[in-house]
Amino acid sequence: MSGALRAVLALLVVCGAAAACSDPAGPRAAGPAASVASGPAASVPPVDDQDWITYHHDNARTGVAPDLAPLGPLSVAWRAALDGAVYGQPLVIGDRVYAATEHDTVYALNATTGAVVWSTHVGEPQPKSGLPCGNIDPLGITSTMAYDPPTGLLFALAETVGGGHTLVSIEAATGALRARRAAEPPRGDRIAHQQRSALTVLDGQVYVSYGGLAGDCSRYFGSVVALPTTGAEPARTYAVPTTREAGMWTPGGAAVSGHTLYYSVGNGESTSGYDGSDSVLAMSRDLNRADFFAPASWADDNSGDLDLGSMSPAVVGRYVFIAGKRGTGHPRAKGHGHHGDAGD
């Protein structure tokens, strides 16, 4: 099957999932939960540039698969009935499409027919009635998953009853659940946090960023949690040093250049002393803040909800570009960040 067809099918599966969610008969029953597997992961074919293994194809979030032939007219090839809404971008690896639902189920679909190859139910999602605010009901897997070629594992962040946040790793070849690990945000009320941004796999770590629920209620803080792709290494964490808010919620998550992760941060509570919000952070793999940029308008941005958090930074050569809700673009040379009151 051509890479072009695979890319088209990755788009079409979202239509099928949305149709399933709006079915008047209600959500379909999920398949049985997978048991934790032992031994090495099953082998999967090596990936190539036509595969879509993370949000927008690669960690730079370019959205470009260079070896794809030009696309012709688009049409619906098939529809797949899943058990919940699909908010994250499906992944395409070889002859399979992978999608995750708000019912906390991960699916592998045949890219030619849409038939379910396997499904793994990883938990019970959090009902909206038990949240302090929000607009997704139920709240399960919202973010785009990430695939790690060296291990053959898919990673997804599942939100579950009680407000828990669990990173799951699943064999892409078989659907076997390899591990569940707590990935709770380091500050605030865990139930007030929503994990919307795409996951990032880099240098043997999975990076998970957090923002708040729709309505910006309760005590949440923008933060990042890093866990190893395999093994029991403890989590690394970073939290924005604000008194509240400063969520990392943009769907694309981090943009990566080399070994540096660039995160955009939303509005924070402060309008006087700078609190680390309304910014772009340059983070090391150990989640140390190496540099940052915030516009001179940060206080007014925070007051008027005009922050930089609505898009992922774009890395272009030696520059990092960000534009927020104010409609102002900021190109910055790497390593030349500025404090929020330093001006442009």
Key phrases:
344 residues; mainly beta; 5-stranded antiparallel sheet; 2 helices; 20 strands; disordered N terminus; disordered C terminus
Structure write-up:
- It contains two helices and 20 strands.
- It is mainly β.
- Strands 9, 10, 11, 12 and 13 form a five-stranded antiparallel beta sheet that branches. Strands 1-2-3-4 form a four-stranded antiparallel beta sheet, covered by helices on one side.
- The longest helix is centred in the N-terminal third of the chain and has 19 residues, at 3-21.
Helix % is: under 10%
DSSP strand tally: 20
Runs in which pLDDT lies below 50 for 5 or more consecutive residues are 1-38, 339-344
The largest sheet is: 5 strands, antiparallel
**Roughly how many Å is the radius of gyration?**
20 Å
Distance between the termini: 49 Å
In sequence order, what are the helices and strands, one letter per element? Answer: HEEEEEEEEEEEEEEEEEHEEE
SS-based structural class? mainly beta
Envelope shape: globular
What's the total helix number? 2
Taken as a percent bin, the fraction of beta residues is 25-35%
What's the rounded overall pLDDT mean? 88
Summarize the structure.
The chain is mainly beta and 344 residues long.
Describe the secondary structure blueprint for this structure.
Layout: H1 3-21, E1 91-93, E2 96-100, E3 105-110, E4 116-121, E5 146-148, E6 153-160, E7 164-171, E8 177-182, E9 193-194, E10 200-202, E11 205-212, E12 223-228, E13 236-239, E14 255-257, E15 260-265, E16 279-283, E17 289-293, H2 298-304, E18 314-316, E19 319-323, E20 329-333
Antiparallel strand pairs: 1-2, 2-3, 3-4, 5-6, 6-7, 7-8, 9-11, 10-11, 11-12, 12-13, 14-15, 15-16, 16-17, 18-19, 19-20
